[in-house]
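Late entry, evening session. Most of the bench is empty. Finally got around to the prediction I had been postponing all week. Sequence below, unchanged from the version circulated by S.P.
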Amino acid sequence: MARPPSDGKPRYLLFDKQKGYRLTLINGKRKSLGFNRNKAFAIANQYNIQMRPEDGIETLLSLSVSKNNDRLCDRLSDIHNAILEREGLSEKVRDGLRTDMERAKEFFTIHPHDIDLGIVNDYLNHYHGHLLGESFNKRLAFLRRYSLMRSIWG
């Protein structure tokens, strides 16, 4: 499995100064997506969602909701382990993820489907209200990326 890029690019998307963005397909071939960054990112994300389900959100969602109505905090250890196994994270990123997971375990003691926008705002204000701009957005992206707030973002 490819290591997650540190520059925010979708997995398997490379940039070549002469050829532009190139996506490595599941058959190993590379497809040129041009020089438009936004378009290349959108195409790569959609391709990865459809063609690489093991890298997708469904894997994490299946771990986040169990058949016996576990609370979100009860499932976060499994989600955390799956993330660590699936993604090649640096030690610094692992430490930040561990901190975020501990905070989420402490705060989200309800079923994932009972979480609404107000609860998410309370969480963000409680732990990250002092952050501004990009730092705050990273905390919000953590919630979105790991599907902790499935009932809000689908």
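Two things to note before I forget:
Confidence is low (pLDDT under 50) at residues 149-154.
Helices lie at 37-51, 57-64, 72-86, 91-107, 117-128, 133-145, 150-153.
Will write this up properly tomorrow.
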